[in-house]
Write a structure and sequence with these properties.
Structural class: alpha+beta
Helix content: 40-55%
Radius of gyration: 26 Å
Oligomer: single chain
Order of helices and strands: EHEHHEHE
Number of strands: 4
Strand order of the largest sheet: 2-3-1-4
Number of domains: 2
Low-confidence stretches: none
């Protein structure tokens, strides 16, 4: 297995090459770019929202259960269920759950921490975070991938072992 990396001058050239590579039958493709290349949306905001709502509901239920059922106290004749007092703590627990889900979700979605990968050895990737748009193809036929990248106007093509 080899990794063939092609560097492109701009986003449009990379996206054109990416579409043509997929049409040519290359499936194991990764992109390395200075900004997000596609219009895909991250599931992370939804994960954070759901975790925050679950956390707030859990915090509210927890307080309700403790003061109303598990350990009811008669303090000055007040009701056991006094929901306005539960709101700040429920909010804080919701924020705690949302932040925790955001941090953990970020690491899971981005497959981090990955301190090193074989593709990092490709010289073309050295400028991928500043001004180059790179495509990495994991393939058993590196010659075909290299020729395809050159045919689709790559500025630089490198090959590294996987």
């Amino acid at each position: 297995m080899r990794i063939v990396v092609g560097a492109f001058a701009d986003k449009a050239a990379m996206q054109t090459a990416l579409a043509r590579l997929r049409e040519a039958g290359f499936n194991a493709i990764e992109t390395y770019t200075p900004s997000p290349p596609g219009e895909g949306h991250s599931p992370l905001p939804l994960v954070i929202l759901v975790a925050g709502l679950v956390g707030a509901a859990l915090g509210f239920w927890w307080q309700t259960h403790e003061t109303g059922q598990a350990y009811p106290l008669d303090i000055g004749g007040r009701a056991h269920f006094s929901w306005p007092a539960y709101v700040p703590i429920a909010f804080e627990i919701g924020v705690l759950f949302a932040i925790t889900a955001g941090v953990v979700g970020f690491f899971l979605i981005n497959r981090m921490p990955q301190l090193w990968a074989p593709v990092d050895e490709a010289p073309a990737l050295r400028r991928a975070t500043s001004d180059r748009w790179c495509i990495a193809i994991h393939t058993e036929a590196p010659d075909q991938a290299r020729h395809a990248l050159w045919r689709f106007a790559a500025l630089q093509v490198d090959e590294v072992p996987a």
